[in-house]
């Protein structure tokens, strides 16, 4: 199957893109790396009147370095992280996770903004960015707003985008020298989407400790204060598996085998943080 006929536009700046996507009389889809949109077009799961290609917008490929965080343009690719063209402020977390996304051909084109906005529960970026405290910035007719990554994803394949809005950047805080992190995903073979993800970060110097259970049926479960799961993070990191199971069940995961798989993924992520 091939896509329906659609018009194509490639604006040169964000303002131009916003003018195009604000057209309420037509169905408009934004295209970045097209690693998700391309197959959906071919299967006619989406049938837009207009596709707006934002890859020609230079500011969406920029990386800004601030005092406490870096700001990453929405069109920065997975390969840019893998090859360290994006400064690593996470003690190896983002480059390591990027290397495990699908295959190199996908990483060469797929973008961080496109992946987050596609909002697949099994994708990597949402889980690791939620663990390190990442935020997204959106621009639209009412101006710009910033949202935590875990709040941006409303559910499976559903992001908090208002009419006429687009994601323009991702902000990642700089981890301190004492920070430790761990990431583990369970999948049948390399390159496939995960069926369980555990993500963890503890930064005692900043007083931050976060744990994430990802690859759920909806948005990831984010525990913004993970100290009750692992202690203060200053000594050995050991997951309280019984408490983790109870918290995951409280989030809505009823099946005990499914909970066991996800708690095991979180435990392995914490074990990796222990050796980091």
Summarize it.
Helix content is about 30%, strand content about 25%. The protein has helices at about 15-20, 35-40, 80, 95-100, 105-110, 110-120, 125-130, 150, 225-230, 240-250, 255-275, and strands at about 5-10, 30, 50-55, 65, 70-75, 135-140, 145-150, 155, 160, 165-175, 180-185, 195-205, 210-215, 220-225. Strands 4-5-10-6-7 form a five-stranded antiparallel β-sheet. It has a four-stranded antiparallel β-sheet with strand order 11-12-13-14.
Give an overview of the whole structure.
- This protein is α+β, with helices and mostly antiparallel strands and 276 residues long.
- The protein has 3 domains: 7-53; 58-173, Uridine Diphospho-n-acetylenolpyruvylglucosamine Reductase, domain 3 (2-Layer Sandwich); 180-275, Enolase-like, domain 1 (2-Layer Sandwich).
- It is 31% helix and 25% strand.
- The protein is built from 11 helices and 14 strands.
- α4 packs antiparallel against α7 (124-132) and α10 packs across α11.
- The longest helix has 20 residues, at 256-275.
- The model has no long low-confidence stretch (mean pLDDT 95).
């Amino acid at each position: 199957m091939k896509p329906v006929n659609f018009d194509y536009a490639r604006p040169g700046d964000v303002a131009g893109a916003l003018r195009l996507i604000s057209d309420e009389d037509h169905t408009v889809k934004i295209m970045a790396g097209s690693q998700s949109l391309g197959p959906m077009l071919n299967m006619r799961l989406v049938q837009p009147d207009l596709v707006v290609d934002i890859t020609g917008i230079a500011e969406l490929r920029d990386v800004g370095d601030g005092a406490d965080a870096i700001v990453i343009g929405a069109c920065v690719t997975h390969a840019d992280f893998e090859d360290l063209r994006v400064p690593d402020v996470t003690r190896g977390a983002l480059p390591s996770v990027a290397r495990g996304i699908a295959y190199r051909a996908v990483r060469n084109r797929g973008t961080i903004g496109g992946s987050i906005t596609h909002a697949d529960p099994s994708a990597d970026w949402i889980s690791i960015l939620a663990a390190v405290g990442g935020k997204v910035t959106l621009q639209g007719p009412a101006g710009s707003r910033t949202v935590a990554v875990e709040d941006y994803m409303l559910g499976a394949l559903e992001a908090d985008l208002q009419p006429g809005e687009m994601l323009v950047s991702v902000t990642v805080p700089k981890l301190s020298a004492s920070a430790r992190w761990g990431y583990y995903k369970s999948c049948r073979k390399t390159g496939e989407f995960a069926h369980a993800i555990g993500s963890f970060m503890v930064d005692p110097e900043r007083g931050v400790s976060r744990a994430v259970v990802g690859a759920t049926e909806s948005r990831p479960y984010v525990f913004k204060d993970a100290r009750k799961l692992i202690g203060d993070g200053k000594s050995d990191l050991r997951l309280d598996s019984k408490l983790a199971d109870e918290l995951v069940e409280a989030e809505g995961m009823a099946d005990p085998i499914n909970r066991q798989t996800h708690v095991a993924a979180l435990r392995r992520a914490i074990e990796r943080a222990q050796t980091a």
